[in-house]
Write a structure and sequence with these properties.
heterodimer; A: mainly beta; Immunoglobulin-like; seven-stranded mixed sheet; four-stranded antiparallel sheet; globular; B: mainly beta; six-stranded mixed sheet; 12 strands; 0% helix
Amino acid sequence: DAMVIQNPRYQVTQFGKPVTLSCSQTLNHNVMYWYQQKSSQAPKLLFHYYDKDFNNEADTPDNFQSRRPNTSFCFLDIRSPGLGDAAMYLCATSRAGAANEKLFFGSGTQLSVL
Amino acid sequence: AQTVTQSQPEMSVQEAETVTLSCTYDTSENNYYLFWYKQPPSRQMILVIRQEAYKQQNATENRFSVNFQKAAKSFSLKISDSQLGDTAMYFCAFIFPPLGGTYKYIFGTGTRLKVLA
């Protein structure tokens, strides 16, 4: 019955070694978001897709990239992780068009950078 | 700039008691929506309650209710008859019509609530 699934739950990578986080959804939602959540901070939007249209936040570092090959899947690529990229990464989805549409979140991927 | 402020990083409440979590926001928009999300330990973030800014009546969902004061830009969450399962991080969030494109949430920094047995 899971609706937004993130894999893996925990990811450990080395400084500078590329890493990919994945998110899948069974809701057929138009919009998929990636948030970065550090301890005691608000979730920070990195980028989102509206269908195939990619929308990057102005302050998202170039080190972060994303791919959405189809409606169900979305990937977050960190090309050269730094120690400051250690965080929880949350994927969320929503239906497009209505402001009061709630977000559906995955359980997150906790990224550690050694 | 749109901002959301949660001034209580941590709170605790005895089981069966009532607790209120505060949230203030800043916006120049007149039409927007406010939400409270709950993130239990190691579990998914889920919606608790939402409020449309154009509605004067405060939203209620079972034991959860809000006190929405539009002029003061305040949106507090009241949890009645607190249960152990209410232990979680609570995020206040705000959404407003975009200048084209998708609606985007702005989150507060969260309040960690612990319900004590």
